[in-house]
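Worked Example 4.2. Read the sequence first, then its structure tokens.
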Amino acid sequence: MFQKLVNHNDDIRRLVEKGYAVAFDSNYLVIRDIPYLDDQNKLQMGAIVSKLIFINEVRVVQDDHQIFFAGHFPHNIDRTPIRNLAGGPTQLPLSEAAADVVVQRSFSNKPRDTGKFKDLFEKIESYVAIISGPAIELYDVSPYTFRIVDEVSDSVFNFHDTLTSRAEITDLAAKFSNDVVAVIGLGGTGAYVLDFLIKTPVREVRAFDFDKFHVHNAFRSPGRVDSSEFDKPKAEVYSSRYDNFRKGLSLLPKFIDASSAEDFDGVTFAFVCVDKGSSRAGIFDLLLSKGIPFIDVGMGLNRKHGSLNGMIRATYYSNENGRRVRDKGLAELIDSPNDIYRNNIQISELNALNASLAVIKFKQLRGFYYEEIPEYHLLFDIGDCRTVGESEI
């Protein structure tokens, strides 16, 4: 990736050719070996970090005129703080590959004439002149070290995750790095669960569905629909939609029951998105026997009042309390001729909402989202748009 960016971005190439210790991490440009003076006139080395905006796979532009700085506040030779460096103390978590770069503050200094830097080369040159000028004069040092920093990238995505870097949540996204997540059932809700997980940096996503993709599926399915997809296995359809987006994706046209233990070796979490009670029972037995925590989703809609009404459900089965939660009967485990699910009324926005509740709960469990009350059972009532939950088992 380093060479691709250098080859396709003239401003980055110029930084490398001039001798800056250029590296990339979590979609940031990192310039190490930046000399500066502390308040005791001692020589220190810092690093400049600047956000990158990817306009395609290999072309980048600067985000704005600001930078992040790993180091103390730089000073002049007379030990006064350098002026015209607005900003303040801040933190910016980077990946383990850049553990030596500990961001402590941000700086803001616009070009006086234009208010905007022409490119990254002009931006870095300007900040280095301000930050390093006194150190260069006093110690005859140079920021041009020509040092090569090995790039280590273990991203599961085939595109740069600029959403994470722009939002400055790299440390939170890293909480999913060891997860292998299974999605059982790729109907309306399961398809949206898959879509959300595809864009989450879990190490691997495994999905299973034995059924074929029909026209009605297209009306509660995320993404572009092509008529050639009809009557193909759902696993094949969704695999073709997403295999260019990320690595670690395995979608199989397979029916999952208690005999499918090998398919779940190494799985750390699962989503159960099936609508038959008997199928759900066998899947529950499998996951509980293997000690895999999971979330089961369900939807029940009716027309008792003319307009559609009903409930959306997401229930969490932990390693510790999964069997007790199952025994509470919150999810149907048998097939009933009067089962509300047999009406098969499902609407895409409700499928997406059901999937959202489930995935948000999963991300709360991993510490990505804040959770005030650890509820294991969530119900959303369509009639009043209220969510209620249970936290005590």
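Now turn to a second chain, presented in exactly the same format:
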Amino acid sequence: MLTIGMLTPLFLEWSRYEMRRADWTVRRYGEALSWVIRDIGDQPVAGLNIGHLMELRRRMEERGCGPARIAGILNAVRSLLKFCRDVLHVEALEPERVRLPRIPRRDVVYLTKEEVGDFLGAIIRPNESWETVPISKLRLRALAEVLLGTGARISEVLRLKRDDVDFEKREARTIGKGNKERRLFFTERSIEWLRRYLRRRSDEEDGLFVTQGYPPRQFTYDNVKQLFWSATRRARLKKRVTPHILRHTMATTLLFNGCPIGHIKELLGHERLDTTCRYYLGLDMRAAKEAHEKFLTYE
């Protein structure tokens, strides 16, 4: 019988190369499925049933796992079942029957204009020249500027090759969520910092962001995460800055400057407008107050 443990390596390879999931997503799937095996045993996939899932949830809740953690593990199970049914044609529980817990809505964390300046200044100080700073600093500054200038997901940016970017049009094509191609639009500032970084590169690697070792390799999310944490501490920010917070910062800046929510949806690469609305529509209280005063009248 094909068990969860037996199929996990094949499932992870399919996720990485066929579905083009980000490396950190693939690792998260692997960790989640190892938890499943630990909690309910290495069950045959064809024998997985609702009882197993209820037992899994019970054990996770007893350990104090929150809704987001439980949802992440159950989502990995759902994806494995979909792989088994659609790719391997193995009889298995319908993925739709794996119910995910409702995750409480979190406040959208973003940076103010001043915090953006502090964060970027902690990477390259205003009195430093981009031509002489270590290229590692220039790479991080260019990456942060690209995230702020495009609103892209970090996985979308790290997939980019040099040839993907049209510097004249300030555009790039990348693979977004759900393995769908989409366009990114750069600000003049972000494209200029990208140009500066590429001018300082001496390697011939195709990747847009690469490591400094020889041979250079594609930059990974693990590389980025630690560097962002260090820059956050140097900037003495109370918020821990992540690539996703820069994505929120781009979206909220557009919103506060009067950009229609439909355009923000397209720029973020959301498939559904209600996703964009759920995250951002209630944020601009200034606009809400103005609308209240303008439109609410009983005369």
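Notes for the reader: The radius of gyration is 22 Å. The chain is about 55% helix and 5% strand.
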